[in-house]
Every structure is written in structure tokens, then in C-alpha cells.
Amino acid sequence: MPVAAVFGSARIVEGEAEYAVAYRMGALLAEEGWTVMTGGYAGAMEAASRGAGEAGGHVVGVTVSAWAGRNSANRWVIDERPAPDLVARLGELMSADAAIAVGGGIGTLAEVALAWNLRQKDRRDAGPLILVGAPWARIVPHLASTLIIDDADVEIVRLAADPEAAIAYLPPRPSSLS
To answer: What is the dihedral of CA 118, 145, 109, 119, to 10 degrees?
Structure first.
């Protein structure tokens, strides 16, 4: 079963628009037969996990065993994979067949930058990097106009207005995460 890593802010809560987007993204991924992998905690991670879980999908949460104040994954995670630190956690998340960001904050920006850079370095093996929502549609062109990012680098990123548009960028049969 292919795996999609979903990134987003831990600071959002149920009832907010960004939570609904992450929930819908998780549900659509599960309906399409994808395993949903998140950082495992609250906010968008919980929403995507919940959406996938309620749609009957498999949910992986990559948590950090050494973080104080974060004891365990959200209740929608079926398969918790504790990483010893943030770097190992990012490595596990980057092993997914697709990377999808739904809004987010500084942590999400770091995850997107890493996923983007890995795809820039080895375009052959990396799955899609999909950024969902209007903020990303403003950020990517801004970065391209202010940093050293060429057109080929921008083409790596797929901008989607909503989860339904994001699903269209997924390959029909990507390889599975072991």
C-alpha cells in the first residue's frame, strides 16, 4: 500500500478551516488506498489521521520518544513509530511515496523545504510534493522570485487549491513503504 506523509500545523483545532482540510485530505487518501503517515500528534496531524481512520485507512504516526510533554500519538494512529529525535522523525516521514502539506507553520515549512530539496537532488525516485491551499500558492512564487530557485525547481512542487485537486496529482500505483 502506498504511503502519503501529510504535514500541517499542530496548533489548529477541530472547528477551524485548516482542520477540515487536513481531515478531508486524510479521508480522500484512505479512500484511494493510501496509508496516511503524519507526525502523529495534534492539529493537522490528528485531523489527517482521523479522516483516514474514519474512512477505514491505515494510519502511521512518527513520534519523537525524547520530547517532553508529548507522551503518545493521537488516538487515530494505528501504527506508532517512535523516533529517537527530530532528525530521525523527518527521515521516516521523507521515506513516504508522496508528501502533502495542508497549511502549517514553521515546522511544516521545514518539512516542505526538506521534501523539496530531496526531490530537487534526485528527481527520478521521489514521489510528488503537493502543497494544498492558498498560502502555498503565494509562498512558492515568492520564494522563486526572491531566492535562487529556478523554473525546474518550481516544477517539482504541485500546488492544489483543495484536497480533491491534490488527489489528482498522486500516481496511480506508487511503490510501498516497507
So the answer is: -10
